[in-house]
């Protein structure tokens, strides 16, 4: 997820900032039913079809409900679904829903709300960066390309509380998708009421999950998740509210934590080192990939030697150990380590793939390739700007990249532009950048959640790299080999090898999130893939 994406977006540094920590002492039971969480990025939209950032998906996951809700270890648990029947070799689903569940405006949640939501997301007019996740559902690909009408999508309401879903082929991870916010229902009446303003403020949206988003004006740095008394399982929700505050400076967050204004604080690498003896300090791995995307519409980046030189000029160990120092790791992979294992051997996906020589720090070779590449493209004054968010971690990494690239690539001039996250997402989506520091967070626990986005034409393929063999392998893994676990795995391994050898992107590291977690905060469901946090059953002891 990005970034965007999974920034899922393209995805996001938001994952580093969603922190829980020591609770302020209080004898008041009412005070124990609320706390304030820090985050380092503003919300951009809570429109389910248009959201891309990791932090936003956490909000959607707690304010809305789909057919399934993901529990510990990403296990799909029934939510609005009460019975699921599969036939036709896993390609035909009939899903019965709970009756009389409510939206926060009092409307009943029906099967038609799912049909409308899915059709809206795949409709090319919506321009959803997540429409590709519907690939495999009957006619989804043709609809996304504008070749068929959205109402031909393979989902139908066959009753007020019953859905029938037809797939083009078996999707091994389909229930995981149904637990991801992009597959949640939407209230058509509300979407039509607010038009372009839908999801741009907390009061221009309705909710059917454990909490409601409140007190968000669309641009503000604070908002609240308030208990939703219209939620079908409201008895399970213990917190009256969870408040959010944007704090971009880590030291400020730590100071506010120490003064009990926040329940926690995101930690930099140095802070984590200084607090290494704190019994509440933990570091959670994240199913992420932080990377450089080189805009391949630019003449400079169409040259493979140039792309290889940039990769070889970067010391990834220095980034993880000295620049960040927060538990992040060098992965030499786009797919994150620990996400999925070989169905036959049990080996991690990253152990089966091969990192090319261009993924290793080699300044001498980088210089040679750089000079050869510049000669081939006829550029004598190479320069570019790295676009990145204005968070502490992004500033630190891009400062290192600026220095390393200028040092190891003769004649290169690098500028850095650290700007608000939502603006970064918009510029990545419109390809209005030269080089961007990007990330992708897994939407579900399968390698395809990373690999899908670098197929030709995918809206999250922000570098616009393409390779026909890569596309064929990904297509096979999603279609003809979908029901052949070993062959499907091999397709994905071969695809990643192509992506890395051709330096379609430049992977840098896989992130970790060091933070303090109070033992008084109970029943938090954390998953490294997809929406990270599920606070439905959370309470403070």
UniProtKB/TrEMBL annotation:
Stretches assigned to the Solute-binding protein family domain: 75-459
Protein's name according to its UniProt entry: Peptide ABC transporter substrate-binding protein
Family to which the UniProt record says this protein belongs: Belongs to the bacterial solute-binding protein 5 family.
The organism of origin for this protein: Secundilactobacillus hailunensis
InterPro entries, per the entry: Peptide/Ni-bd (IPR030678), SBP_5 (IPR039424), SBP_5_dom (IPR000914)
Keywords: Signal, Transport
Subcellular location: Cell envelope
Top-level taxonomy: Bacteria, Bacillati, Bacillota, Bacilli, Lactobacillales
Signal peptide bounds: 1-22
PROSITE patterns recorded: PROKAR_LIPOPROTEIN
Domain of life of the organism encoding this protein: Bacteria
Pfam families (UniProt xref): SBP_bac_5 (PF00496)
Coiled-coil boundaries: none
Gene3D superfamilies: Dipeptide-binding Protein, Domain 1, Dipeptide-binding Protein, Domain 3, Periplasmic binding protein-like II
